[in-house]
Structure formats: C-alpha cells, structure tokens
Write a structure and sequence with these properties.
By secondary structure, the chain is of the alpha+beta class. The chain has 5 helices and 8 strands, in the order βαββββαββααβα. It has a single domain, classed as Pnp Oxidase, Chain A (Roll). InterPro entries: Split_barrel_FMN-bd (IPR012349), TR_PAI2-type (IPR007396). It comes from Psychroflexus aurantiacus.
Length: about 190
C-alpha cells in the first residue's frame, strides 16, 4: 500500500488553488543552520505564485530570502470513530491539507503594499484597503513582503473515499461536527 493512495491525493492546480483561497493561512516551514523554523502566514495567489508577508522581528525573516520552503494549508481534521458506522471499521483520522514547496524571494515596498491591498480585497468584502492608508506607511518598515515560486504541490484529502458512498458522506458530516465542537470548546475555554 502506498502512503498516499490516489483516491486521497489531488494534483490538479485548479482544485489546489480553490483550496488555498478558502484556507489561506499556511504553516510556513524553513530550515536554516540545522534548525527548523515555522510561522503561520496568510497567502494569496498571484500569477501562479504565492504572496505573503512576514514581520521582520520573526527569526524566520533572517534566512527566508532565497530559501526553499514548504507551506501546509489546513482545511480541517477529525477523529473518525468506528462506533459511527454499522460496518466493522478501524478508528482513523480524516483531514484536508495542501502542501506546496517552493523558493522565496523578497520584494520591494511597492510589491508589499500591492500584496497587502490585494490580500485585503480577496479576503474582505466589507473593507477596502487604500494604497495610501496611513498605517501602511507606518507598518511597511516592520514587515517584509515575499513571494513563493511554486516548485511542486499536492492535496491530501483523506475523507474515507475508500469506503462506501454512505460511509464517505457520514465521514464528511463527522468532520464538520468535530470541527465545530472542538472550536466551540476551545473558544469557551479562553480567558481574557
């Protein structure tokens, strides 16, 4: 059995792009001097490249330019109990993730500002960020815009596709319910 059977993987760019647009916050993974660095960065797609920005105080900023990176976009996960099905199954985890590997290059201030405006346009229909917003001028000295040139990508969508149609549909419902319940529990436990 291969690690990722074909029915759990996706290599179609249109499908991957749609997933990234729905779940734009990625784990950015890089390696420098025998240490692994991770950050959580939102990305937008522009001309088949991914655009993001990073705080210059972030330790990852020091080595990111010209680095190879991996991005993991997260669409959810859930433990799937055998108790939910009439047939005998084993426990499993279902998940939706996209992995992108590529190379980073830093941009200039104009590219940073353009990416901030484009990101806001794509993610927010209720607020329009102007290129001349005064906070951009203040913040641009503290953040660095960058692009990831995509070398490879694939989706890992394990949703019980190897089971019956009824099982597959039930597993999707369980994932949705699990996400909602766990998020509610976590949010209710936060203190301020």
């Amino acid at each position: 059995m291969s690690y990722l059977p074909d029915h759990f993987t996706a290599n179609d760019w249109t499908r991957i792009q749609g997933f990234i647009e729905l779940f734009p916050l990625a784990t950015l993974i890089s390696h420098f001097e025998n240490e692994i660095f991770t950050s959580h960065i939102p990305f937008i797609i522009s001309e088949n490249k991914l655009l993001g920005h990073i705080n210059k105080e972030n330790p990852q900023f020091q080595h990111l330019h010209n680095s190879k990176v991996e991005l993991v976009f997260h669409g959810g996960d859930a433990y799937i109990s055998p108790a939910a099905f009439p047939t005998e199954e084993l426990p499993t985890f279902n998940f939706a993730k996209v992995h992108v590997k590529g190379s980073v290059s830093y941009g200039d201030d104009q590219e940073l500002i353009q990416s901030l405006v484009e990101m806001t346009d794509q993610m927010d229909s209720d607020f329009k960020l102007a290129y001349t917003h005064p906070k951009i001028e203040m913040l641009k000295h503290f953040i660095q815009g960058f692009e990831v040139s995509i070398d490879s990508f694939h989706g890992r969508f394990k949703m019980s596709q190897d089971k019956s149609q009824a099982h597959f549909e039930k597993a999707k419902v369980l994932l949705k319910e699990s996400q909602t319940q766990r998020l509610d529990y976590f949010l209710n436990s936060l203190q301020y």
